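Postdoc handover notes: sequence design on the structure in folder B. Input C-alpha cells:
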C-alpha cells in the first residue's frame, strides 16, 4: 500500500466516524420530532371538545344577553311611565298638596303656641292680641 492509499483509508475511517457521530443526534432529533408530532395530535384531539364547550357557553351567554336586553327595555319603559306619572301627579296635585301642607304646618304651629300660653298662664312674647289692649 502506498502512502496515498493509507491516507485515503484514514480519511474514509474518519468520515465513517464523523457520520456515526452525526447520526446519533439526528436519530435523537427524529425521536423528538415524532414525540412533538404525537403531542400536537393529542392536543388537537383535546382541543375539539374544548372548542365545542366554549361554543356552547358563548351561545348560552348570547341567549342570556338577549334576555337581559328585553328586561332592560322593560325597565326603560317602566322608568318612562313612572316619570310621566310623577309629572302628572305634580301637575294635578302638587300645588294643592303644598298648600295643604303649609296650612297644616301653620295650624300646628298656632296650636303649639296656644298650648304654651295656656300652660304658663302668660302670653308668649311678641305681638299682643286684641289690638294691643290689656
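Designed sequence:
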Amino acid at each position: 500500500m502506498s502512502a496515498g492509499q493509507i491516507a485515503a483509508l484514514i480519511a474514509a475511517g474518519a468520515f465513517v466516524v464523523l457520520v456515526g457521530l452525526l447520526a446519533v443526534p439526528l436519530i435523537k432529533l427524529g425521536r423528538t420530532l415524532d414525540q412533538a408530532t404525537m403531542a400536537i395530535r393529542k392536543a388537537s384531539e383535546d382541543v375539539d371538545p374544548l372548542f365545542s364547550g366554549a361554543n356552547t357557553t358563548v351561545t348560552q351567554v348570547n341567549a342570556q344577553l338577549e334576555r337581559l336586553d328585553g328586561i332592560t327595555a322593560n325597565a326603560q319603559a317602566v322608568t318612562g311611565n313612572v316619570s310621566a306619572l310623577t309629572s302628572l301627579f305634580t301637575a294635578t296635585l302638587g300645588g294643592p298638596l303644598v298648600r295643604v301642607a303649609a296650612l297644616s304646618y301653620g295650624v300646628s304651629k298656632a296650636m303649639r303656641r296656644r298650648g304654651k300660653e295656656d300652660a304658663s298662664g302668660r302670653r308668649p312674647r311678641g305681638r299682643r292680641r286684641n289690638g294691643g289692649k290689656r
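Context for whoever picks this up: The two ends are 161 Å apart (CA to CA). Don't rerun without checking with the PI first.
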